[in-house]
């Protein structure tokens, strides 16, 4: 390249740099704009800091288009499940309310019936008291009759037992009485040669038993013999 061309290029660069510097200096050194007469508001920002805003100017808010979630997303599923649970709880609550209302109405009807019955009994006065007394007396009489019947059965049983005991004693005493009623027999002792040995005492005793019936004592008197003597 020729030396003349290099000089022209350097001069052009220097001219451009000088123009840019002058523009910057003009921008910084120029007089400030007139102050705005509009009031400035302090808006809270964050927890403590305040931010000065001009009501004539609008803040820039980023805009993002809203997109509906797809039916398969967890949020949609959770919302549908929540709404279903809420509807179910609502139906159960309405059903319980209806049941409680029906129960309250039934209880009210029952209370009304009891009040009417109580009023009817109160109007009748003491008519039920004699009936209850009569029933109590009848029960007492029935109990007394049952006790008497029980005592009679016990007495009959005791009498039967006593009769059985008497019969048994009689049956046991009959053989003994029959044996006692038989007069005692006297044994005759034999002597040698086939002869019977009977002493005088045996003969007297045998005669006394015959005359007195085996009871001892004096022999019975014979009036014919006494008259002849």
List the helices and strands and how they pair.
Layout: H1 3-29, E1 41-44, E2 50-53, H2 74-124, H3 128-181, E3 189-190, E4 196-197, H4 200-212, H5 223-228
Antiparallel strand pairs: 1-2, 3-4
Question: Termini separation (Å)?
Answer: 229 Å
Mean pLDDT: 68
Q: Would you identify the regions where 5 or more consecutive residues have pLDDT less than 50?
A: 31-35
Q: Helix and strand string, N-terminal first?
A: HEEHHEEHH
Biggest sheet architecture: 2 strands, antiparallel
Tell me the β content. Answer: 5-15%
Residues in helix, %:
55-70%
Kindly provide the radius of gyration, computed on alpha-carbon positions and rounded to a whole number of angstroms: 75 Å
Q: What structural class do you assign from the helix and strand content?
A: mainly alpha
> What's the helix count?
5
What's the β-strand tally? 4
Write out the strand line-up for the largest beta sheet, numbering strands in chain order: 1-2
Shape estimate: rod-shaped
Biased composition (Polar residues): 124-136
Signal peptide: 1-22
Biased composition (Low complexity): 137-172
Keywords: Signal
């Amino acid at each position: 390249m020729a030396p003349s061309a290099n000089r022209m290029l350097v001069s052009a660069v220097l001219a451009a740099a000088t123009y840019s510097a002058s523009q910057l200096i003009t921008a910084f050194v120029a007089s400030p704009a007139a102050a705005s007469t509009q009031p400035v508001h302090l808006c809270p920002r964050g927890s403590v800091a305040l931010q000065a805003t001009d009501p004539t100017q609008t803040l820039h808010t980023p805009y993002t288009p809203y997109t509906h979630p797809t039916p398969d997303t967890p949020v949609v599923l959770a919302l549908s499940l929540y709404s279903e649970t809420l509807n179910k709880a609502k139906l159960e609550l309405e059903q319980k309310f209806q049941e409680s209302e029906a129960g309250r109405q039934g209880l009210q009807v029952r209370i009304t019936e009891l009040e009417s019955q109580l009023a009817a009994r109160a109007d009748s006065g003491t008519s039920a008291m004699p009936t209850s007394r009569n029933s109590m007396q009848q029960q007492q009489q029935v109990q007394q009759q049952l006790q008497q019947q029980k005592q009679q059965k016990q007495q009959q049983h005791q009498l039967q037992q006593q009769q059985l005991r008497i019969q048994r004693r009689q049956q046991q005493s009959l053989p003994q009485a029959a044996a006692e009623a038989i007069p005692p027999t006297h044994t005759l002792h034999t002597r040698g040669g086939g002869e019977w040995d009977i002493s005088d005492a045996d003969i007297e005793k045998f005669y006394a038993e015959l005359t007195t019936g085996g009871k001892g004592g004096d022999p019975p008197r014979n009036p014919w013999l006494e008259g002849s003597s």
